[in-house]
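Backbones bend. To wit:
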Amino acid sequence: MQRLVVMGAGGHAREVLDVLGSMPDGPSRERTVVFAEAGTTTDAAAALVRERGHTLVDALPADATHYLPAVGDPALRGRLVALAESRGLLPTQAVSPLSTVPDALRDVPGLVAFPRSHISTNVSLGRHCHLNTGCQVSHDGWLGDRVTLGPGTLLAGAVTVEDDAYLGIGVVVLPGRRIGRGAVVGAGAVVVRDVAPRTTVAGNPARPLGGG
């Protein structure tokens, strides 16, 4: 029987727990625990998790079989993935019934799709992508591993987003643009040209911070 560990105890993790709870075939609460390493969460966050009826642990249970990283930061998500897989745990998904996700993508390891997220035709997703509420990935898009799309983000046709990129709330990326590995795009930015790897951009049109 599956024993799921949701990795994270902050607000993002609680939203992921809501998605899991909304899935008709989602894991039972009794077989789900919330993991937060000792010293990495606040007392208030821990109390909110417990008030919602979930068990909070600071070590991976010996009977755990599956895991789902539930943090917004791609780098931390990657570290949690490595920890879980070092224990031989298998990734699962949290896909809201109020999202639009093609059947071919519903088995992508670690996918989190919040309500009203929409994935169009011929889209490729890497492992452990998080698609927040109301974001849209248009036709022929390509997302690498551990990409985070903030609420209301719009990727127009044939956009490429490389591993570990983070796109904030309400970002718009025009057709055919590329967001490089580890790049950060600030909230409300409009991306009209490619973003170099590990670069932070903001504004309309989006420009590197510091005036580059």
